[in-house]
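Re: that backbone. C-alpha cells:
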C-alpha cells in the first residue's frame, strides 16, 4: 500500500468581530454576525459579554440578509 502525505491547504484567517465572555473561568465567545442579540449573554454561563476581535478562519454567512 502507498500512503501519500498530502499537505492541507492553508486556511485563510481574518480579523473577526466577536462577543467574548467577561468571566475569566469561561471560554465562551460568539462571532458577531452569528449573534441573534445586540448585547448577547454567554450561552454557557449567562454572564455579560464584551465586544472584541479575534483572528479566525473566514466563514461565509449565507443566511445574512
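Recovered sequence:
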Amino acid at each position: 500500500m502507498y500512503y501519500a502525505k498530502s499537505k492541507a491547504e492553508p486556511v485563510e484567517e481574518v480579523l473577526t468581530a466577536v462577543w467574548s465572555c467577561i468571566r475569566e473561568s469561561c471560554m465562551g465567545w460568539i462571532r458577531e454576525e452569528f449573534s441573534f442579540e445586540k448585547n448577547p449573554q454567554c450561552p454557557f454561563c449567562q454572564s455579560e459579554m464584551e465586544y472584541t476581535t479575534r483572528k479566525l478562519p473566514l466563514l461565509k454567512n449565507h443566511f445574512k440578509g
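The chain has a mean pLDDT of 89. The two ends are 50 Å apart (CA to CA).
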